[in-house]
Structures are given as structure tokens and as C-alpha cells.
């Protein structure tokens, strides 16, 4: 286990790449969550509108 960690620390290019991928994945997650919340609110509004018109 220690040898794996030491290899990871010695190879800085792989560490930097891993950090960059983590940042990109985080950004994609934030955008996806925001988009889903906006779409979800619009769908909820439409369903409430339909329910009001039916009732």
C-alpha cells in the first residue's frame, strides 16, 4: 500500500490529471443538478396546471 502511494506521489503528471478529471466531473455534476432542478420545477408547474384544469 505504501509503495502505491509513493509511486502516485512521485508521478506528478498522473496526480495532476486525476485532479483535473475530478474538477471536470464536479463541474458536470453541478450543471446537471442545476438543470434537473430547473426542469423539475417546470414539470411540476405544468402538472399542477393540468390538475387545476381537470379539477
Describe the structure.
There is one protein chain. The chain has 55 residues and is mostly helical. The chain has one domain. It is rod-shaped and about 70 Å long.
Draw up the topology in text.
Blueprint: H1 2-10, H2 12-54
Q: Could you describe the largest sheet, including whether it forms a barrel?
A: none
- The helix count comes to 2
* Helical amount: over 70%
Large-scale geometry:
rod-shaped
Query: Overall mean pLDDT score?
Result: 85
How far is the first residue's CA from the last residue's CA? 64 Å
Q: What share of residues are in beta strands?
A: under 5%
How many runs of DSSP E, i.e. beta strands?
A: 0
What would you report as the Rg, rounded to the nearest angstrom?
22 Å
Amino acid at each position: 500500500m505504501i509503495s502505491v502511494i509513493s509511486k502516485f506521489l512521485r508521478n506528478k503528471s498522473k496526480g495532476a490529471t486525476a485532479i483535473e478529471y475530478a474538477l471536470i466531473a464536479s463541474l458536470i455534476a453541478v450543471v446537471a443538478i442545476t438543470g434537473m432542478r430547473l426542469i423539475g420545477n417546470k414539470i411540476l408547474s405544468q402538472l399542477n396546471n393540468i390538475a387545476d384544469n381537470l379539477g
